[in-house]
Amino acid sequence: MPSLIDIWLLALPWLLGAAAATWVLSVVIRNVTVVDVLWSLLFLLAAVVYARATSPADGRTVLLLVLVGLWAVRLAVYLAVRTLGHAHEDARYQAIRRRNEPGFAWKSLYLVFGMQALLAWVISLPLLGGIAGEPHPLGVLDALGVALWLVGWTFESVGDWQLARFKRDPANAGRVMDRGLWRFTRHPNYFGDFCVWWGFYAIALAAGAWWSIVGPMIMSVLLWRVSGVALLERHIGKRRPEYAEYVRRTNAFFPGPQKR
Question: Does residue 153 contact residue 69 with C-beta atoms inside 8 Å?
C-alpha cells in the first residue's frame, strides 16, 4: 500500500482540478460565490480518493465516508439553493473583486479557488488519518467522534433551516434572528462545523493519526477568526445597528443561556 504522504498527495490534483472547473463556471456567470458550494464537496472528493487508494475499505473508512458524505452534500445543496436565490455576488467576494481589479477573473483562479483547494487539502488530514491510518477495530474514540458529529450536524442543519425559514417571512425583513438555536449562540452553523471536524479528528485519533490535529485546528481558526464569525459580524454590525443588543445577550460561538 502507498505511504500516507503518497496517498495524501494523490488527492491534491483532484482538488485543484475540481477548483479549476468551478472557476470556469464562475467566469461564465461572473459570480465567484459558487466556490462556497464547492467547499464541502472538496472534502468528500478527498475522502473518496483516500478510500480508493487504501481499498479494501474497513469499518472506519465506511463510517467516515458516510459521515463526510452526509455533511458535505447537505451543506453543498443548502448553499447552492441560497446562491441560486441571489443574483448578486456575495459581499465578501465583491470586496475581494474590487481590491483585485483589473483582471480579477484570472486572479480569482488562485486567490479564491486555488486557495480553497489547498486549504481543503490540508484540513482533510483527519480524513486521511482515519481512512489510511492504523486499522484498529472501532471503539470508544470512534463513538465519541460520531457523537460530536451528530451534535455538530444537528446544530448546523437545524440552524440553517431555522434561519432560512426566518428569512422567508417578509415580516422579519431587517430583523435579527434570535430564535431557536440562535438564542443560544450567534452562529449555530459555525459551532456545528467546529463539532463535526473535531468529531472527524476523534475518529482519526482512533486510527493512531494524532498528527492530523492540524486539520481541525485550522478549521477552528477559520471559523472563529478568519472567514467565519469575525468576518460575518463585521458586515452585519454595519448593516443592522440592533445587532449590538443581540451580541450583548448571546454567546458568539459556544452555546449558552442568554444574558439579561
Answer: no
pLDDT in tens, the chain (260 residues): 689 999 999 999 999 999 999 999 999 988 899 999 999 999 999 999 999 999 788 999 999 999 999 999 999 999 998 877 666 777 778 888 888 889 888 999 999 999 999 999 999 999 999 999 998 999 999 999 999 999 999 999 999 999 999 988 888 887 888 889 999 999 999 999 999 999 999 999 999 999 999 999 999 999 987 776 766 766 665 566 677 788 888 888 899 988 87
**Which DSSP symbol is given to 210?**
G
pTM: 0.92
Instruction: Please classify residue 242 by burial: count the beta carbons closer than 10 Å to its beta carbon, then call 0-12 exposed, 13-18 middle and 19+ buried.
Output: exposed
| Euclidean distance between the first and the last CA atom of the chain, given in angstroms as a whole number | 59
